[in-house]
Amino acid sequence: MKVLIVNNMAPFVWGGAEELAVHLQKNVIEAGHEAEILRIPFQWEPASRIPSQMLMVRAFELWNVDHVIALKFPAYLIRHPKKTLWLLHQYRQAYDLFDVGQTNLPPGAAGEELRTVIRNADNESFAESRKIFTNSEVTRQRLQRYNGFDAEVLLPPINDTELFGGGSVGDYIFAGGRINDMKRQYLLLDALAQAPRNVKLLIAGPPDSPADGERLRAAVERLGLSDRVRLDLRFLPRATYAEYLNGAAAVAYLPFDEDSLGYVTMEAALAGKALITTSDSGGILGLVKHDETGWVAEPTAAALAPVLADACGNAQRAAARGAAARSLWLSLDINWPHTVEKLLR
Amino acid sequence: MKIALVSSFVPFLYGGARNIVEWLQTMLEKEGHQVERIYLPEIDAPDLLFEQMIAFRWIDLSAADRVICFRPQAHLIRHPHKILWFIHHLRVFYDLWDSPYRGCEDDLRHRGLRDALHQADTAALKEARHVFTNSQVVSDRLKHFNGIDSEVLYPPVFDADRFHTRGMSDEIVYVCRLEHHKRQHLLVEAMAHTTTPVRLRLCGSSSGTTYPDTLREQIVRLGLQERVLMENRWITEEEKVDYLADCLAAAYLPLDEDSYGYPSVEASHARKALLTTTDSGGVLELVRDGDNGFVAEPTPQALAQAMDKLYLDRGRTAAMGERALARLDELNISWSHVLKRLLA
């Protein structure tokens, strides 16, 4: 079967959705099909040009394609008789972000009109799709609430499972992933300052902006933590990232209200690492169960400090929670062969 | 520099139109440029043409410092710094209108569509900072139909250094898809008329099974099994390099093709004499009769004569092979020239 994966492209920007499309392509091919990615340029600024870009997607003619898997707005507007959606997100600025005032749509009638145009086009596309999957429970609920369409949650699998074989329980807590205010690595530094001196921390990943990296460096300096913290602030080779993760005592990931289980926590669970998160981290709580697979703390330094101490203070307990995290992850049965099979059904 | 390369494509079909884009991408990235490659679907049905053309008008590539457009209708894209490397028109609405390829009625409605297409194309071509083409044939067509001046920028092949010569067997090779308009059958027919022990090797895959079957039958019917070898598959790049290194000469004789064709350029890098025909179109921009190969009449007899000459006068054949390499320089067929012109 010839499977075309249809995704957006913000020219010269590469991110998680692009990675996901590439891995989907690779795994569709491994399942014995042909697969190609169509990347459609999309710029959401200025908002007045969104409708013409929607029409653009709608105007394309596909030929020599048996099955389409579309991922994002407006790529999923593309016409094809056999179209499955794996919805990563809608145009949130016309939906939930609009409701909380975080939108680039103009105020008043013009904005309302754009919103209606987007909603109508979305509904038409959803109705003509064979099946809709979403990448998270939050996305599924949003679709149900705003558009009234049912979907099935299909969590994105880990891309390179072979890297996360685990390892012995080390003497540091690992915090991986992108560095920014929403991911709150600074909170770990504040907690560390209140934790016993045997607790060590390794923060590694690409800062979203130079300021994000600078903020962490300044905090380490200010709190006098340089002998207990290692910062490796860059886009890491996957092997380096995996090495850091596999050798940790526990893995901490504290984003604010994330939609998904989070790649960092998924990969840590697969590697059999105890997990640390906060009570307001959203989808992450799907994997982190307090006292079972790790620790869930209030999002304050005072609440996190004893958790860090606990995680670094008893290797046997950390190993047991890590094993439980691994069992929980494996019980979810999230892998590429199943995912591809569902998307092509 | 941020450079967007834009072309149209048919999903799951691979070939020359993608090579030119992807090879250029590699070369630009080597030079340190940020490159984004954009393939958009396009089919040529008259009734669907204009809505798809509007789609191309709506694409926003303002994030790029310049865009380079290839296969139609990518040239319709709007950008303040638009460069075209124009490789062909939608030919059924241009030079192939009065041909069996047209595929639609020659009536008032379709003539109207055709004329509107010409106008839209001309307007979009005029927006470009510079128009390059891949052959003189295409440049002539742009002048004739759209009144547009352009510069020929011959597409080089990828990693040309791997091609070399290491001898001269009795074999003429034709590395090319097995398709009727590439006319492998004409060469097989010619083999029956040769008087020397010259041999022929055909290698390439085919879009169907009919033509390869016909060729196979033809080889048997003419009793040429000992002297004609056919490999109906996509040979590896290593095999191609080896075949070209060892062969006597290389053939490329499509029917009236626009461009000179990668097979003839690859053979030239391997310092081999070329064999083509007087009706092969763009190939004649590269091959000059008696200089870097032979240009024969498209008949079995004339081709047989040329093949025998290649076999008998090896000194001359080798000299023509040397000229084939020199000819690439004369035509400026190199990536350094391409990059210099596209980034000027």
User: What is the averaged pLDDT score of chain B?
Assistant: 96
Average predicted local confidence, pLDDT of chain A:
95
Number of helices of chain A: 12
The stretches of 5 or more residues of chain B where confidence is low (pLDDT under 50) are: none
The number of helical segments of chain B is 11
How much strand content do the residues of chain B show?
15-25%
The percent range for strand residues of chain A is 15-25%
The ordered string of helix (H) and strand (E) elements of chain A is EHEHEEHHEHEEHEHEHEHEEHHH
Account of the 3D structure:
The complex is a heterodimer of chains A (345) and B (344). Chain A is an alpha/beta fold. Chain A folds into 2 domains: 2-154, Glycogen Phosphorylase B (Rossmann fold), CATH 3.40.50; 161-331, Rossmann fold, CATH 3.40.50. Chain A has helices at 16-30, 50-59, 96-99, 109-128, 137-147, 185-193, 210-223, 238-246, 263-270, 301-313, 315-331, 336-344; strands at residues 2-9, 34-41, 67-72, 83-89, 131-134, 152-153, 172-176, 200-204, 229-232, 250-252, 274-278, 294-297. In chain A, strand 1, helix 1 (16-30) and strand 2 (34-41) form a beta-alpha-beta unit. In chain A, helix 6 (185-193) packs parallel to helix 7. The radius of gyration of chain A is 22 Å and the shape is globular. Chain B is of the alpha/beta class. Chain B folds into 2 domains: 2-153, Glycogen Phosphorylase B (Rossmann fold, 3-Layer(aba) Sandwich), CATH 3.40.50; 160-330, Glycogen Phosphorylase B (Rossmann fold, 3-Layer(aba) Sandwich). Chain B is built from 11 helices and 12 strands. Chain B has helices spanning 16-30, 46-58, 108-127, 136-146, 184-191, 210-221, 237-246, 262-269, 300-312, 314-330, 335-342; strands at 2-9, 34-41, 66-69, 82-86, 130-133, 151-152, 171-175, 199-203, 228-231, 249-251, 273-277, 293-296.
